[in-house]
Specification:
mainly beta, 6-stranded mixed β-sheet, 4-stranded parallel β-sheet, 2 helices, 16 strands
Length: 361
């Protein structure tokens, strides 16, 4: 009987026997193939064998410890649902293969899937904050076949950190010579960043207009035979402008707090003073109204209150023309209303990534 040894891929052996051929189940030997199922063993006799499949993390640690470029190891994953509470750290020279049916002597099947479900447990809360399903950094010669990877996301309003939380299915950096074949990767929603701070207080209102010329009140000027004592002035003040919108922090990382809102604009000038009784020099204008509260930011905190000081009163009004007996002028108008508070800016929400890599083989 003639025997030929074919090498289709590094570390995968195919044995052809005679004129026909058959596929050997473990062509490279039990010592380099690790069998895994949900809830598998974590040590002991024959752990990781066909008859005693291992836990996924335990098998990974064993394979990564001994695999070499010339003798890569294979992790065969039985179909079923795996709960991952930690990131699976990929390593060089290890091949991951899902879709094996343990009940059929570890034959490949299309009837069921190998599904890895990464929970939000043990997310990385340092900088940068992130939740990762599988990760490879500065490694080479690795493969992923026939695996469904789901990474749980975060509901709106859930904030594990002030900077949000990015979600990755597979995170690769500085890797080479790898293959990802027939894999489905689903990354959930990233967590929101914290709300921006409240906007600043509105600015102080502007000064009131000068009072209008004094006018007759209760017939006093007529009683003294006065002429042209002047009429009531019209209002000329306006409300202050709203504060500016808050900006994001300078580094523009996901989930940063928004900057404080800008101060509101000065209020408009107050209205003209009304006539008084009797005709004497006009008094100073009244204190301006308190500014309006700032408009609420988009998802951020509400703007601060307006300035607590209104604008100064206007100057007293002048005598009417030819008012030869009246001595009182109109009072100054009220100061303008304080500017509105600044608008709070919402923190940027993080995003979810299916696969992030700096290069693809």
């Amino acid at each position: 009987m003639r025997m030929r040894l074919l090498s289709k891929e590094p570390g995968l052996c195919i044995i052809l026997l005679g004129s026909g051929f058959s596929w050997a189940q473990d062509p490279c030997g039990e010592g380099r193939i690790w069998y895994v199922r949900p809830g598998g063993c974590v040590g002991g006799a024959n752990c990781g064998s066909r008859t005693n499949p291992a836990d996924i993390y335990w098998a990974r640690n064993q394979a990564c410890a001994v695999a070499t470029p010339t003798a890569p190891h294979i992790i065969r994953l039985a179909v079923g649902n795996y709960t991952l509470n930690n990131t699976i750290e990929l390593c060089s020279n290890v091949y991951w293969e899902g879709g094996y049916d343990e009940s059929q002597q570890w034959k490949k099947t299309n009837a069921s899937n190998t599904i890895l479900n990464r929970t939000t447990a043990n997310a990385e809360t340092g900088w940068p904050p992130r939740l990762v399903g599988m990760r490879g950094v500065n490694i080479s010669n690795f493969q992923l076949h026939d695996i469904v990877l789901n990474v749980q996301g975060y509901a709106a309003g859930v904030r594990p950190t002030n900077h949000g939380m990015s979600v990755y299915g597979i995170y690769l950096a500085g890797c080479s010579d790898y293959r990802i074949v027939r894999c489905e990767v689903n990354a959930g929603r990233g967590a929101d960043g914290a709300n921006g701070p409240a906007g600043g207080n509105g600015g102080t209102g502007g000064a009131g207009c000068p009072g209008a010329q004094g006018g007759e009140s209760g017939g006093i000027c007529n009683a003294f035979g006065c002429n042209n004592c002047g009429g009531t002035g019209n209002a000329c003040g306006g409300a202050g402008g709203a504060g500016g919108a808050g900006g994001n922090a300078a580094d523009l990382q996901p989930g940063q707090q928004g900057g404080a809102g800008g101060a509101g604009g000065n209020g408009g000038v107050g209205g003209n003073g009304a006539h008084t009784n009797p005709c004497r020099p006009g008094g100073g204008g009244g204190v301006g109204l308190v500014g309006n509260a700032g408009a609420p930011g988009g998802g951020g905190a509400a703007g601060g209150p307006g300035g607590t000081m209104g604008g100064g009163g206007g100057a007293g009004g002048a005598n009417g023309p030819n008012c030869w007996c009246c001595t009182r002028q109109g009072d100054g108008g009220l100061g303008g209303r304080g500017g509105g508070g600044g608008r709070g800016e919402n923190g940027a929400g993080a995003v979810g990534f299916v696969v992030a890599a700096d290069s693809y083989a």
